[in-house]
Specification:
With 165 residues, the chain is of the alpha+beta class. The chain has one domain: 3-Layer(aba) Sandwich (Aminopeptidase). The chain has four helices and seven strands. A seven-stranded mixed sheet has the order 1-2-3-4-5-7-6, with helices on both faces. Strand 3 and strand 4 form a beta hairpin. It is globular. 27% of the residues are buried. Bound molecules: coenzyme A. Coenzyme A binds next to strand 4, helix 3, strand 5 and helix 4.
Length: 165
């Protein structure tokens, strides 16, 4: 079986994975997103330690003792129970374009279905750093659900994509 034929197995993230996961986000997206990922993930584990459910789950794809991919599910506790948002989705830049992103998306799609969610949403941005990701999501069935003007500090729009689970 070649590397690209191999299935992507995901496992739930642990607190000690935060630095590696945020580093992957920074390399795949940009430094700023890496900092936000670090903050979000630290908040998540602090909530868990205090017995609070923040509606979030993070999964990692490991290969050769290294984090090669990350994906999160964010559910707003105050929102419709069937909705979930894909968050911090990234594949190591060295491994992109070989079909691993699709396998990671399939794995988290299955996980979201098992958790009872029915609608997938993604918050992304009309900015050059995310062009590749937007093309990827649309190729795999996500459609545009809305835009928010002037969302990022540089004036970029937020783009919401969605798909049934
Ligand atoms: C979005 C992302 C996770 C996709 O991961 P990926 O591993 O590159 O995805 P895939 O390889 O499955 O698909 C990407 C492309 O490679 C192509 N591809 C798939 N299998 C392939 C293979 N075996 N050989 C060559 N190309 C292949 C796909 O057709 C797709 O083509 P496209 O460029 O026309 O869309 C990745 O690009 C990434 O980490 N981006 C930066 C982070 C980011 O922006 N995340 C989203 C934030 S909202």
């Amino acid at each position: 079986m070649s590397g690209t034929d191999a299935q992507v197995q995901i496992r739930q993230m642990k607190k000690e994975d935060i630095a590696g996961a945020a580093n992957l986000v920074a390399r795949a997206m940009n430094e700023n997103e890496g900092k936000w990922a670090d903050k979000t993930m630290n908040f998540h584990f602090e909530c868990m330690e205090k017995g609070m459910n923040d509606g979030r789950e993070y999964y990692l794809w490991w290969k050769a003792d290294k984090i090669q991919g990350i994906v999160g599910l964010h559910h707003y506790e105050w929102g419709p129970p069937e909705n979930v948002w894909l968050a911090w989705f990234a594949v190591d830049p060295m491994l992109q374009g070989q079909g691993f992103g699709k396998r990671l998306l399939d794995a988290v799609h299955e996980k979201a279905g098992d958790l009872g969610y029915q609608k997938f949403f993604i918050e992304t941005y009309l900015h050059p750093d995310f062009e590749k990701a937007i093309r990827f999501y649309k190729k795999y069935g996500f459609t545009e659900h809305g835009r928010i003007d002037n969302y990022l500090p540089d004036g970029s729009q937020m783009l919401v994509l969605g798909k049934s689970i």
